[in-house]
């Protein structure tokens, strides 16, 4: 049974419905049946195919990681099922030198930017090749070589980190832009308010991307805020905002490109609200059926971002079932290789828990490490 929460006077309910994307203020470019709305995307055909392949790869990784967790081979996974257009379209709009500060669903963007798939699965398994040495939860990664900030579980911390980097870039006259991802739940955090206030005052080169997927774990949107949208929250900080159909790859690319151009031109930050939908639970630790019955997914499945782009490619470049099967087989072969390698790699050495904490290990930790290496002592005879 769904409990209806009354809207405060003068505000509209935020109950997420598929038809929300039809609002006049929502940027759209691609209809659910794959036909263009307006002039179409400013993308070459080969770029669209590459983006589509990245979306298919992201979903395949997602599905395989869930399966591995269900089989007890990894401990945790947090996915992006249904949100691929929001994640990949926005990352595509950045330059190589721009920074991306993820929430935790953006592994697809990281992989598209060059984060090695082997390194990703090493992190999921927490093996000896995991650069975090198994200390982080699965799906908590970073990759400085590709300007990817570290995933962290506390809500919203990446937003202020992105602003700090952008402010430093501006002081150094660096032209890079920092994009921060976060969910609708993070707009209730102090990090969101502190970051947007600072960014608005100092006109930092930031793009704030809110994935409004309808749920903050089990808390629905209408319980999260009484505002008529999340984009409108930018008004309080003197920041422009835009809403886009987050299941529409071309709309996300277009909205993010405009925001990036503003930031790079010194015009300050932009808040983007991407209206998408989480087709799975919050994570593999979540049981979404407790609060969201399966029938509610049906209208959202018709808006599947992968289906939209595939229908477009069928008409545009004659994308066929054979093309689809080809990339699917290629991706599955790649997955098998990296998972086999990650699973047969030994766990980190026990002594690694003492590494990378102090420049010089203090005496008491040296004693503890040595005792660990000696193993348990035999009890003394009485």
Structure description:
With 382 residues, this protein is α/β, with parallel strands linked by helices. Helices cover 40% and strands 9% of the residues. The chain folds into 2 domains: 18-348, 3-Layer(aba) Sandwich (Rossmann fold); 349-382, no CATH class. α1 runs antiparallel to α10 (305-317), α1 (45-70) packs across α11 and α2 (84-92) packs parallel to α8 (249-264). The protein is globular. The model is unreliable at 1-13 (pLDDT under 50).
Say what the CATH topology of the largest domain is: Rossmann fold
**What is the string of SSEs from the N terminus onward?**
EHHEHHHEHEEEHEHEHHHH
End-to-end C-alpha gap: 66 Å
Low-confidence parts lasting 5 or more residues at pLDDT below 50? Answer: 1-13
* C-alpha-based Rg, rounded: 22 Å
Shape: globular
CATH architecture of the largest domain: 3-Layer(aba) Sandwich
Q: What name goes with the CATH superfamily of the largest domain? A: Thiamin diphosphate (ThDP)-binding fold, Pyr/PP domains
């Amino acid at each position: 049974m769904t409990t209806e929460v009354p809207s405060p006077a003068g505000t509209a309910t935020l109950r997420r419905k598929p038809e929300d994307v039809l609002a006049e203020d929502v940027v759209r470019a691609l209809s659910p049946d794959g036909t263009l709305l307006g002039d179409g995307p400013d993308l070459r055909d080969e770029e669209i195919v590459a983006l589509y392949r990245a979306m298919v790869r992201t979903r395949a990784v997602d599905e395989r990681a869930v399966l591995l967790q269900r089989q007890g081979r990894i401990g945790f996974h947090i996915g992006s099922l249904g949100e691929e257009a929001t994640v990949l379209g926005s990352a595509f709009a950045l330059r190589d030198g721009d920074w991306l500060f993820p929430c935790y669903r953006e592994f697809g963007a990281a992989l598209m930017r060059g984060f090695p798939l082997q390194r990703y699965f090493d992190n999921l398994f927490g093996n000896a090749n995991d650069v975090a040495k198994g200390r982080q939860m699965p799906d908590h990664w970073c990759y400085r070589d590709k300007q990817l900030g570290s995933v962290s579980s506390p809500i919203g911390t990446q937003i202020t980190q992105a602003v700090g980097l952008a402010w430093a870039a501006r002081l150094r006259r660096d032209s890079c832009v920092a994009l921060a991802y976060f969910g609708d739940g993070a707009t209730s955090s102090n990090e969101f308010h502190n970051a947007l206030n600072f960014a608005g005052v100092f006109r930092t080169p930031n793009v704030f991307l809110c994935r409004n997927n309808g749920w903050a774990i089990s808390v629905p949107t209408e319980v999260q805020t009484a505002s008529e949208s999340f984009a409108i929250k930018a008004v309080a900080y003197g920041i422009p905002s835009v809403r886009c159909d987050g299941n529409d790859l071309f709309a996300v690319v277009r909205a993010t490109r405009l925001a990036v151009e503003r930031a790079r031109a010194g015009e300050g930050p932009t808040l983007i609200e991407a209206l998408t939908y989480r087709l799975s639970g919050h994570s593999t630790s979540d049981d979404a059926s407790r609060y969201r019955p399966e029938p509610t997914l049906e209208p959202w499945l018709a808006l599947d971002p992968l289906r939209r782009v595939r229908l477009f490619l069928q008409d545009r470049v004659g994308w066929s079932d054979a093309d689809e099967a080809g990339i699917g087989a290629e991706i599955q072969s790649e997955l098998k290789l990296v998972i086999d390698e990650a699973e047969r790699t030994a766990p980190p050495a026990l002594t690694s828990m003492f590494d990378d904490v102090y420049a010089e290990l203090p005496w008491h930790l040296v004693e503890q490490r040595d005792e660990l290496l000696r193993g348990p002592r035999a009890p003394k005879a009485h």
